Records
---
Amino acid sequence: MSVVESAVIAAAGLGSRLGLGKPKCLLEFGGKSILQHQLWLLRSVPDVRVVVGFEETLVMDAVRRLRPDAIIVRNAAYRTTTTLDSYNLGAMGVRGNCLFLDGDITFGPAHFARFLDTCRPDRALIGVTALKTQDAVHIGVVDGQATWFSRERRAPHEWANLAWIPPSWLNKPAGESVFERLAGYLPQATCEVESYEVDTAADYAIAEPRALEIFREID
Amino acid sequence: MTTCYAFDLDGTLTSIELLPRIARELGIEREMAYLTRLTMDGVLDFEDSMRLRCACLRAAPIESVRAIVADAPVDPQLAEFIHERRDRCAIVTGNLDFWISPLVERFGCAVYSSRARITDGALDGVESVLHKGEAVLAFRQKFDRVVVVGDGVNDIPMFEVADLGVACGIVHPPAPRLVQAANFVVNQGDALCRLLKAL
């Protein structure tokens, strides 16, 4: 039984590099969206919050259909703010650690379940994955501990945009990104997951074959 | 920090919309639905709409209306939430005080509503139509923060003066214009209670 009580999905962004014209969380593989996949992965988490912004009506309708007990959080300033702001809005009032994930990521279900099982109430956990995306945030891992984040310095792993942390770690200064905030709290324990972020057409090509397999498992 | 909560009644605390239910019982559902649509489309402002709807219902025996309202189903989790915080909760509704009193007394919290003019035991007209924004401002005076919950266009004035607004889609999807003024949207009573307890 996982200790994860609250999860925030950041699904407010424009996804402009992919040129979809719709939110990336609604990107489909085999007729099922990434949002549907993530809500399925989070089916055992009682308090799920989805932060919406770009084309919010589409995302809100999907949430209402897929997980009617989820809380929808509006980031009305999504055009001028970052995922950090969405996470801060989404975790409002959450006590203790909270699970944060970006809404454009496909996760291997077994790895994701193991991540949930590895979470402990008072210990942070950072999701890392094998380097594969074009615009990766590289992460240094030494003896299972994350020691640095960097866009420039290369490493075999990248951040999986998945973290189990106290929401207070994300209290901004504005303009910072999530990994820059997390960098102030390193070293922290990591858990390796299988994940596929889709920012560009090249990312999509890498993600598609495995996403099609994974999405078939959704009930 | 002390937080208070202001709730719309129709379709937010009750699991049905009251005026359409009353209209159905009286056989004037279609007329009432037309007035409601004109209001939602912005053709009629809320005060004019309220006065017209009350004019439609004027002929109805008051006790029949009160009985219909008194039987309106209420989300039990929300009722419990309010009951446990009755000194920090208020019901803010455009409905007439005389109609809703048997229902709202069950919650045991403050109530702000429109006021009926009663003559010889019968509804004679509308004494005053509640401005929801002013009601919330009055209620919140002794608190640091106010969280408001509603589902319709007439709740927008509450949202404009609140610290946080929750658009409620429990009975039907919340009005799109209200969503634009909201911080949160919820579609089930347990999600609403979970959110309110966390905030």
---
Amino acid sequence: MNEREVLEQWKKSSIKIGTPTNIIAALTAFIPVLWLCTRYDCWPPFSTVMTAWGLIVASFGALYFVEPISYYASLGLSGTYLGFLSGNIGNMRVPCAALALDVTESTPGTIQAEIVSTMAICGSIITNLIATTSAVIVGGAVLSVLPEFIVDGLTRYASAAIFGATFGNFATKYPQVAIFALAIPVLLKLFTGFSAALVILCTVFGTLFIARIMYKKGIVE
Amino acid sequence: MDNVSLVSEVSNAPILWLLCGITVGISALQAALYMRQSKKMTAQISLDPAVPKKAFRVGLISAIGPALGVFIVMVGLMASIGGPMSWFRLSIIGAAATELSAANIGAEACGVVLGSQDYTLMCLAVSWFAMALNGAGWLVFTGVATPSLDKLRTKISGGDINWLVVLSSACSLGIFGYLNAGEIMKGIGNTIAVVTGAVSMVLLMNTICKKYPKLKEYSLGIAMVIGMIFSVGFDQLIK
């Protein structure tokens, strides 16, 4: 089998795993609230739930589409299913997958890259599960003995440092593109009242457009 | 019993761990299935089995840093939405900020404040509906549309492999540019974390890691710690 056929086969079985698991998880996520309402007979009026849903969609709705589209290139097919079910995509899944591609010297779009990012994301899911579970068991106790500045540092700056590190690593490969990738959202946030989703869209596609021009002109390769 | 203690007691009911565990279990099952698929494919294309193993290790190790952040955020979240729900929402789909805003929106739809005396069990139900409905947005979209995203990428790349590599990096740069812009706007402390995180990662990758490639696997964690030290140091200095 050649690379193309192998990739096709990989995609087919990835979809077979990902589609049902993500959709089933969307449904089973309602089990706790259904239990709550049945057990304590506290069903809220349908209209109140719809109001809440409306407010939710107004705040997050556009991200349901924009995020999967924007992250797809770095997560790959199986990575998208895994990433959106397990969450923490920007601060955990993509940095882990990107570093794993780097360490194993895999080229995006190849079958090796798909395997590598899948395995890296699976590894990070296990670490995250250990962290959340131990937070339940020993969280309070650990937090009470940790010095305040460490807690403060982790809550306020951990994400910022990881975002910076991941960006820096990509930026060394394409510094010319990186300038625009940072300038576009900063300018949009400063001078427009665009929603988060619109800023993401403009940034990702704007950067893509500029990268395309530079690629055509041979500035990046 | 007053509403605050009732809501707190119900949201920490032991059976909830089991009910929330169902979905956490599905996420674990999905990861297990993908690992099995990767293993099969590795054998089929006779890829060196050391490669996926290494990738798995990179994921396991590099996630420690961000997972510590999740750990701490979760302890905070447990106080406002209860243990089982925090564990559930942060093990899958969620980020703390998203879940808290969904819980707040639920309260808002009832016309009350989250955690107040007027926040009844019914309001709790609205909050939980809001969280589940919000998560479903991403899950249903990716569940249904991911194959089309692949076609979209193929279409934009036009079959040019070199361009596909640039395209992937450009998309990542775009999304991380956006995330960093958000941090930079938060203030000097966060800006320092972004800049020192980025500079230390670049330096690590291009100097020490070139000499000791094994260290690459830890680079993200090291860069994170350096970034945090500088930011926290700055905070201490101006205090």
